[in-house]
Write a sequence for this structure.
């Protein structure tokens, strides 16, 4: 399987603390050694750092842990391969452009017996994972439903994606993150949780390595920051656990739709 | 304007030497301080590092200069903005997926009076540069001509792109790099040159900083590596200078088509 991490914030915020915890699970405190990636949005622009080796020993991951990139939306993934070889092309997150936005996606889980299901022509897999195939299918279905221009209410698109995720879940475990750079959606089959931090901020302690942060010193009183993860990253805070079929849509750090 | 850099090789090769020269031009020996980016292919997979600040002082560029990523195709760009603000979304290279391949593009030059020319629906600009607009138009025209599956001869696609580039050149300066990860195309309006290095390898000396490399020690006798740049990067080798309207298609380090 794999682990997911994402962030939605109302001010550009760095994710060094959370990524430091996640990266440990890529070979040190967890078995996810088959690649890692992280996508940062700055406005509509995005950039993705990825590597097909373990995050715990990656030089690029070291940079991400030491060099604070401030972003309003982040999606990250560490991989333990099941379908598809271990290489760069199969490393999440995956990105496609639609409606003049970069859509970024990461998946945790495994799908089976899906022959003939995830069909897409306009968006095609470059690698050979079940994850990317499902992503291309979702993007194709969005275009089939909404056409070549974005609807007025982007939340309608994500509500539709939730119904597609319900379909995908019929074929196995489908925990998913999807963003267009403004909205961030999480969909749960079995392992996904989130925490929304806002004033008054306190201290947080990572589970996977001996790091404590005092958010009160790193933030302003108006900051609202949600972090989503496969499993809680801190052990002194209360995380919201999602159930099978639950989804949440975040914008500027806050839940704006969901089941 | 901007500067371009690219590589095509028959074995995974690092571009540390050439990028070290280029990065100097991003603020130290050249005025291209408005962002930089570099895309590396590993098989069909690709990853892009980019930053909206000057390459000469970027921490991420420092990593690229010190951490050899081996690749068969590389596209890089340093930006001096004319159209479009200085930010991540307007930073080259740009990437889109078509036919299950990642297509990566960078442009040097400026286009004017093109209203109504570069129209595209399937591929849309995320930023607001003339460069990305022309890229989306090229990708749209490729789909209009060849449909949803790649033709048998990919060189046919690039020959068609050369005719599109001829059209784009009517609107200003259009020096361009385009790759699908296997083929690498360069198109010249006024500034583009290349060098193909093969055995017997010799020493090369960068123009922009005091670095000398002995390729004989870095290569094997079968290696063939072409580097493309806006202006020569070394001063003790002979670079091939392209003329207005010239294009070359490279694969595995060698010219395979062109004008």
């Amino acid at each position: 399987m794999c682990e997911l991490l994402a962030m939605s914030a109302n001010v550009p915020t760095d994710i060094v603390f959370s990524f430091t915890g996640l990266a440990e699970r890529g070979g040190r405190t967890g078995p996810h050694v088959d690649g890692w990636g992280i996508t940062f949005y700055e406005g509509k622009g995005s950039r993705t750092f990825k590597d097909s080796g373990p995050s715990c020993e990656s030089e690029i991951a070291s940079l991400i842990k030491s060099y604070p990139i401030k972003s309003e939306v982040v999606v990250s993934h560490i991989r333990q391969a099941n379908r598809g070889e271990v290489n760069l092309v199969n490393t999440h997150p995956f990105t496609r452009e639609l409606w003049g936005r970069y859509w970024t996606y990461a998946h945790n889980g495994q799908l089976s017996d899906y022959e003939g299901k995830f069909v897409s022509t306009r968006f095609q897999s470059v690698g050979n994972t079940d994850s990317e195939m499902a992503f291309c299918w979702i993007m194709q279905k969005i275009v089939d439903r909404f056409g070549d221009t974005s609807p007025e209410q982007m939340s309608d698109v994500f509500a539709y994606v939730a119904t597609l995720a319900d379909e995908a879940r019929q074929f196995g475990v489908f925990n998913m993150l999807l963003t267009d750079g403004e909205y961030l959606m999480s969909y749960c089959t079995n392992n996904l949780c989130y925490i929304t931090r806002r004033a008054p901020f306190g201290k947080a302690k990572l589970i996977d390595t001996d790091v404590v942060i005092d958010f009160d010193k790193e933030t302003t009183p108006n900051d609202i920051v949600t972090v989503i993860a496969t499993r809680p990253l801190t052990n002194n805070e209360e995380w919201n656990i999602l159930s099978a079929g639950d989804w949440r849509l975040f914008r500027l750090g806050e839940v704006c739709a969901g089941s």
